[in-house]
Amino acid sequence: MAEFLIKKGRDIRLKGAAKKDIVAASFPKHVAVQPPDFRGLNLRLEVDVGDSVKVGTALLSDKADPRIGIASPASGKVTAINRGEKRALLSVVIETDGRQEAIRLQPFSEQQLQDLSRQDVIDFLLKGNLWPAIRQRPFSKISNPQETPKSVFIHAMNTEPLALDIDFVLQNKENEFQAGLMVLKKLTDGEVHLCIQEGAQSKALTQAKGVQTHSFAGPHPAGNVSTHIHYVDPIKKGDLVWYVEAQDVLRIAALFLKGVYPVERIVAVTGEGAAGHQVYAKTILGAPLAALVDGERNERMRYLSGSVLTGKDVGAQGFLRRYDTQVTVLPAGGKREFLGWLSPGLKKYTFSKTFLSAFHPAREVSLDTDEHGSHRAMVLNNVYDPLVPLDVMTDFLLKAVLAGNVEEAEELGILECDEEDFALCTFACPSKTDVGGIVRQGLDLAEKEG
Amino acid sequence: MFEEFLERRSKKIRQLFEKGKPLEKLYPVHEAMDAFLLTLGKTTKKAPYVRDAVDLKRVMSFVVIALIPCILMGFYNTGYQIQMAKGAAHSLMGCLWLGLVKVLPIIMVSYIAGGFWEVLFAVVRKHEINEGFLVTGILFALILPPTIPLWQVAVGISFGVVIGKEIFGGTGMNIMNPALTARAFIFFAYPAQISGDAVWIAVDGFTRATPLAVAAIAPKGASAIAALSQAGYTFQDAFLGFIPGSIGETSALACLIGLIFLLITRVASWRIVAGCVLGLTAMSSVFFMLNGDNSLALFSLPPYWHMALGGFAFGAVFMATDPVSACATQAGCWIYGILIGILTVLIRVVNPAYPEGVMLAILFMNIFAPLIDHFVVRQNIKRRLARAPRK
User: Fold this and answer.
1) Whole-angstrom distance, CA of residue A167 vs CA of residue A160
2) Considering CB atoms only, which of B48, B53, B171 is closest to A377?
3) Between B350 and A196, where is the model more confident?
4) CA nearest A15: which of A351, A367, A428, A360?
5) Is residue A53 left, alpha or beta, with left meaning phi > 0 and alpha meaning psi from -120 to 50?
6) Does the beta-carbon distance from A234 to B387 stay under 8 Å?
7) What is the average pLDDT across B154-162?
8) Residues B257-307 pLDDT 10s
9) Can you tell me the distance from the alpha carbon of A253 to that of A420, in angstroms, rounded to the nearest whole number?
10) Percentage of the residues of chain A whose pLDDT score is greater than 90
11) Residue B200: CA atoms inside 13 Å, Cβ hemisphere, count?
12) Residue B391: what pLDDT?
């Protein structure tokens, strides 16, 4: 097992961690599938409002490769199809009937799994509508079943603020997890790299067979996929790597062994605003946030699917995004302070050293959505680089993107990056630059220009 | 309570500046005043949803705070030099007051004239007023001689802001430090008022050469220190700042206090300052060792004198560290700093026509900073290409 100690980065120790106690959430009355979650797919509707669907029914399929389908996580009736600007699909909402009737495929025994060919695995994942669990780098999009990656990464740790501890979730799941790894091993001629947190306890992670296990220690973003790939098997232009979330490894195993589209999702309910519900909630994919925080709504709170760094404000009525394993309820900011720029700042949270609080850091901090300033030109240097453990010169990467120079951006390593890797930079930037947004803009540009 | 009151007032006043209202064009002014009094209270609309409490306003005001010792020393020393020249008694408050009367108008003209351009560009470009000007305005005032005519202050800062900064696209886009650009402009445009012996002490008809000038004109082969002490300059005076010179830069001690503040708050790059000191020490040591009977007197000036004299301390702490015009890479910062130190001594020692070398050294390196960065970035690209996957 290789060990990596990540030194650059920073942990934001937010208040409101979830208690390590898996509690079944009430079964949701509605669930939603949200097309914007599936980057890289151009989705076409397969159902209409009023149609009855089962668990595993394809609600949407990719226009380029119709074999890639997006499954319904519940049985019931399609009640709404929401569109946004330019008629872009935003969500397909299903009213659940609670019966969870499912489409059944012929399952495999554990013995049979070993004899599957690469094509068998791909075909079954496509047939079971579970293909979108497999994503690729560069560009962080849904992978293409016709390509072969040089390696597959299993993302089995997360260092974002208040993130779900996957090691805890995987306790006593070593058999399913191992079966999932075995299936994924078929997808590449190279290695499967299992990236875990240093000190992980579960047998699923520590005794995984047939894979290369790598442990990472250090502050966020030590747990990001980009960090793992960068240290273990870096990509150059033309390289392709696939990656899978650890919870999806379990689901892939379940699909093969049971023949039913698996919908279970364990979500850490976190944040100060979720007081009383801060547990590991067992629910299903596409569940509404209201089912997890028990419907209480508070005007002064923001309801995020995901973490404070990379989540999305979906509102109390919103639904869990496909790849999120965390819900954060965050107090809304916006209080104006008199001469705030002069205050000594005993209670202000900063990575810089310009407030007194920087000299006696609190154990846990309470943050709200205040932006603490407005956008300015980039002025300061060396703000970003201490927060990015990749060997990437962030300031110059941004300038290359802003100048539209794709070639230079690629030379500077943009293909190794994802916008989430720069969330801390955006957090810390005194000029309030949307660093991640610029990187995403550069990635889109690089993808378009091939 | 008080905040709510202010917020209500501000909302009322804002109506005057809104679209279609008489003061629409001046919206950036209102916005700047409003944000000065009350934090913005803007909230995040996309991830990351939480943000660091620091903003550019905070950072820039910290630079101004770091300048306070230099400003106070500037007041005091200007008054002190006047009293000394007149042979009058010098009390602490008396000197401060005299200096205040002399210096405050310079600072105010610098802020008002520069601020005018800043606001004009913000209004035309419809962007917010940048706080960077708070620093430029005071920096420029502090590197002027106390006798400078006020109209030259206005012309200089206008040049610095417009040509040195705004034509490049405003704060963050400029290549050279705007305050130094302004200083260089009046240095070459109006040499009579900014160089020579007569400009350093605000008493009519009184002249006294700055220590660097004294050392520069000392005869060949003479000891610079001897020449300085003959002219009445001790190292203690030079270090503490009781010597003639530009308003804010005579006291190395005041700069040192500012530096400590900037380093604790991590606003300035310690690498640049360390590089400057290193470069200066190395180069002046070389000259010191080469010193012979027929060399210029400045050869014999040891490094610690170089650091205390002229604008070196001020330049290294407040000018070279300007992040916009300095190198952005860490390795680049070292090279950039060291070369500033070396160039400063070179210009001072072997080119006695300009006994003050820091300003030119920094401007020169400002121009080279992107090139240095370019090479550091190329190294990074090469390293990434050469990287083999780990097995």
Assistant:
1) 15
2) B171
3) A196
4) A367
5) beta
6) yes
7) 95
8) 999 999 999 999 999 999 999 999 999 999 999 888 888 888 888 999 999
9) 28
10) 82
11) 24
12) 43
Chain mean position to CA A281: 17
Residues of A in contact with B269 (CB under 8 A): 381-382
Cβ–Cβ contact B46 with A under 8 A: yes
Give the CA dihedral A315, A320, A323, A326, nearest 10 degrees. 80
Q: How far is CA A11 from CA A217, A366, B49, B185, B337, in A?
A: 12, 14, 15, 47, 32
B129 Cα to chain A: minimum distance (Å): 9
d(CA B351, CA B361): 12
Average pLDDT value for residue range B304-327: 93
d(CA B237, CA B216): 19
Size of interface A-B (CB pairs under 8 A): 214
Pairwise CA distance, residues B197 & B193, whole Å: 10
pLDDT of residue B247: 93
Which pLDDT value is given to residue B12? 77
Query: Testing the interface with A: which of B52, B57, B327 to mutate, by most A Cβ within 10 A?
Result: B52
Q: Write out residues 123-162 of B within 8 Å (CB-CB) of A.
A: 128, 130-132
Answer whether residue B68 shows pLDDT above 50.
yes
Cβ of B373 and A233 within 8 Å?
no
What's the pLDDT at A296?
63
Closest partner residue to B384 (CB to CB) among A12, A311, A391 is A391
User: Which of A15, A300, A313, A341 to mutate to test binding with chain B, by most B CBs within 10 Å of its CB?
Assistant: A341
Report the alpha-carbon distance of residue A167 to residue A213 in Å, rounded.
14
Chain A CB within 8 Å of residue B37 CB: yes
- B385/A contact by beta carbon, under 8 A: yes
Tell me: pLDDT of A299 over 80: no
DSSP string, B195-264: SSSTTSSSSTT-----HHHHHHHSPTTS-HHHHHHHTT--HHHHHHT-SSSSTTTS-HHHHHHHHHHHHH
The interface pTM score, or ipTM, of the predicted complex is: 0.92
Minimal CA separation from A184 to chain B, in Å: 20
Q: Is residue A55 a contact partner of residue A261, using CB atoms and an 8 Å limit?
A: yes
Q: Is the pLDDT of residue A234 over 60?
A: yes
Q: Does B177 touch chain A (CB under 8 A)?
A: no
First to last CA, chain B: 64
Contacts of B46 in chain A (CB under 8 A): 312-313, 434, 437
pLDDT digit string, tens, across residues A211-228: 999 999 999 999 999 999
Q: Which of A341, A380, A393 sits opposite B57 (nearest CB)?
A: A341
Q: How far is B363 from chain A (nearest CA, A)?
A: 18
Instruction: Read off the pLDDT band of A297 (50, 70, 90).
Output: low
Cross-chain residue pair A379–B56, CB shorter than 8 Å: yes
pLDDT value of position B148: 92
Q: Is the pTM of this model over 0.95?
A: no
Return d(Cα A366, Cα A330) in angstroms, integer.
9
